[in-house]
Amino acid sequence: MRFTRFLTCSLPLLLILPLSFSPPVAKAASNDNNVEWDGLFHDQGPLFDLAPEPTSTQSVTLKLRTFKGDITSANIKYWDTADNAFHWIPMVWDSNDPTGTFDYWRGTIPASSSIKYYRFQINDGSSTVWYNAYGPSSSEPSSGDFFIIPDFKTPDWLKNGVMYQIFPDRFYNGNPSNDVQTGEYTYNGTPTEKKAWGSSVYADPGYNNSLVFFGGDLEGIDQKLGYIKNTVGANILYLNPIFKAPTNHKYDTQDYMTVDPAFGTNSTLQTLASHIHSSANGPKGYLILDGVFNHTGDSHPWFDKYNNFSTQGAYESKSSPWFNYYTFTAWPNSYASFLGFSSLPKLNYGQSGSAVRGIIYNNTDSIAKSYLNSPYSIDGWRLDAAQYVDANGNNGSDATNHQIWSEFRNAVKGVNRNAAIIGEYWGNANPWTAQGNQWDAATNFDGFTQPVSEWITGKDYQNNPASLSTSQFDSWLRGTRANYPTNVQQSMMNFLSNHDIPRFGTRAEGDIWKTYLALFFQMTYVGTPTIYYGDEYGMQGGADPDNRRTFDWSQGTSSNSAVALTRKLISIRNEYPALRTGSFMTLLTDDPNKIYAYGRFDAKNRIAVVLNNDTVSHTVTVPVWQLSMTNGSTVTDKISGKTYTVQNGTVTITINGHYGAILAQ
């Protein structure tokens, strides 16, 4: 749902000194009362956290990397919520890396059911450095620690998948017989308008943008699953609302239990879900639906503002059985609504056990459970306007909101423990994700969409002038990663565009090379890549509703260079688990030349991603010794197929403007 946000990332207050990337031979690490910051590394990737999603009975063994022979001792300092106190774990030397450049130190936090937060204290004689998710600092940090949340699991298929988002009316018309025609009905006094595919999304005089229809439907999506699964390579579908509603966007629900007739029938949804889940038409897929549970439309029979139903809705009578589903300040015309839109009256969730909570998620036949169960067996919910869900007309983000989403999680996971719960939030979603009892992930406006847009296009996601240098970009990313447990980071929806903001292609002013570069980053960064239909070919579009143009099927083919690159990048992502759940390490930030290099690695593979955000090509020397690549070993650029030899701990490569390389070994 669109609502205005003007957010910027709150960058960490700690002093994070820039890394020096000289080869390790220049370091001469020793016990000299000086901890070498360049050698320090830890994250919760598989090499450094041996139980990234522990149960309450699993201890957590952690590893810390330092330069060989550089430190005299290291400790894990963790806060345990069980006793609200700090505890210390001395670390011991564990091993060396393959190059002999680094030491690994090891320590184990004992098993328990309580949430914990940890940092490292690293000592070389009289010198002490602290390290947490913000990186190294000379003074002890007060925030940004790593998370341990026992018994909190996010779906593996979400971490390892690629998502494709579809606004159903605008993707493909598979059944013209169900198209909404001009004047077919009126809503709030305005008639519907049918427009030709490819024409302007704006209503003609006398009509309304929200009542413009093009004919896209579920059958159309079904017919194009081969394109989504095979040509693009995505295996998770997220659909904007599909339930009965008078508008084209369907965020004004009239009936949660019925697919909108313009999109098909409930049987059509059942067939689509079955085909998505099938592996006969491409990789097995997953389906996420948009759950609009903060509000209904004013035409819902529970409200019935227009007297469309024989029953009496809350707007019609204080005696309505649904009167308490809403909050009136002066019945009938003054009531709590979503951001003041009178067409979207807010649901009143009341106390635990209320009728609204029952029908939305608690009852056996509740909306949330019904679609998770057979015959649909959807795989998760994306929660629209989730921060606002509350009782008595309040606008959420308080104890009641968190209680509701905790109950929702219990209900959903009780049906399918591997179902995904993704909340819409435009800022730091830590309050909903860092306790392990509400959402699995969130919409990553703050940690992906905004910084990527500013770095590559020089515009924020609302298309206003805003720019980041490469080092600022890296700092932003580090700060926003620190907001979340690692399994949440790996599940965040990372999109270049969505239905609420101007298209990336428009912010890039139609420069397809900027889309290429954005795709490189999207497919190699931490999180779930989420392609808003058409972004794979650089579709343009301004603010809502222009960001919801019809799909151009002359562009949606494997012969389109951007679509082909998307498919290739996804295939590389699928080939290497390190690109999905491996560690993330910054290797190089070159502000003058606009070069950004980072590593993704696990026990099996070491990968250096090199991005050039300049308009001209640059020759880059990448410090792959930080990834423990040995001298004389070779790496292969998975894009060009060229091989390179590691010399003096580095690889030198030339990168075209607004393009990248993925160097794997």
UniProtKB/TrEMBL annotation:
One of its GO terms (molecular function) is hydrolase activity, hydrolyzing O-glycosyl compounds. It holds the Pfam family Alpha-amylase. Residues 1-28 form the signal peptide. Residues 165-573 form the Glycosyl hydrolase family 13 catalytic domain. Keywords: Glycosidase, Hydrolase, Signal. CDD domains: AmyAc_CMD (cd11338), E_set_CDase_PDE_N (cd02857). GO terms for biological process: carbohydrate metabolic process. InterPro entries: GH (IPR017853), GH13_cat_dom (IPR006047), Glyco_hydro_13_lg-like_dom (IPR004185), Glyco_hydro_b (IPR013780), Ig-like_fold (IPR013783), Ig_E-set (IPR014756). Coiled coil: none annotated. The keyword Signal applies. PANTHER family: ALPHA-AMYLASE FAMILY MEMBER, MALTODEXTRIN GLUCOSIDASE. This is Glycoside hydrolase family 13 protein. It comes from Thermoactinomyces daqus. The lineage of its organism: Bacteria, Bacillati, Bacillota, Bacilli, Bacillales.
